[in-house]
Amino acid sequence: MTRLRGAAPAVLTGALLATTLGGCGTTVASYRESASTAVQTQLGGARTAELAGRSWLDGNLPDAAATVIVGDADRTVGGAESDFAAADPPAGAGGLRASVTQALGDTSDAVARLRVAVDLGDRGAVVSATRRLTATADQLEALGVRLR
After folding, report:
1. Rounded distance, CA 119 to CA 84, Å?
2. 112, 133 in Cβ contact below 8 A?
3. Which residues contact residue 35 at a Cβ distance below 8 angstroms, ignoring those fewer than 6 apart?
4. Over the range 102-132, which residues count as b (16 or more CB within 10 Å of their CB) and which as e?
5. Domain that holds residue 39
């Protein structure tokens, strides 16, 4: 049996520990990529809901179809928000987390308002919710561009 003496065991242990921990941690770059993915996923759902709301208002989408489409979009944006919120940010990514979480939350709220308005068949509320969603989705899209 060979024994390591002196500083060698400490160096070897440190190297193994660094290798092990280095593979487990999230880097700012990978966290930024996760943020970008969440934003793009949510943007797709938001634009789908927006289009459904406009189509419903124009009389080109039946109530039942609008309800299903906006409901699915609501689940998509909510899922993207909760998935991102569940990820622990690495050191130095607090500002990124705050801005992305705020944008995702605003978009989830806007889609949820549209879903409720469509479910109720409230034309005035759908107009208002669609306008709000358009503005929110535009802001989310701008954030997505900055994250690329």
Report:
1. 27
2. no
3. 84, 96, 97, 100, 147
4. ebbebbbbbbbbbbebbeeeeeebbeebbeb
5. 26-147
Residue 39: predicted pLDDT? 98
The domain total for the chain is 1
Q: Give the DSSP H/E element, type plus range, for residue 142.
A: helix 123-147
Instruction: Indicate the SS3 state at residue 2.
Output: coil
Q: What angle do CA 46, 47, 48 make, to 5 degrees?
A: 90
9, part of any domain:
no
List pLDDT tens digits, range 56-94.
999 999 999 999 999 999 999 999 999 999 999 999 998
Q: What is the CATH number of the domain that holds 49?
A: 1.20.120.660
pLDDT-derived band at 26 (thresholds 50, 70, 90) equals: confident
DSSP, res 61: S
Contact assessment for residue 36 and residue 148, using Cβ atoms and an 8 Å cutoff: yes
pTM to 2 decimal places: 0.82
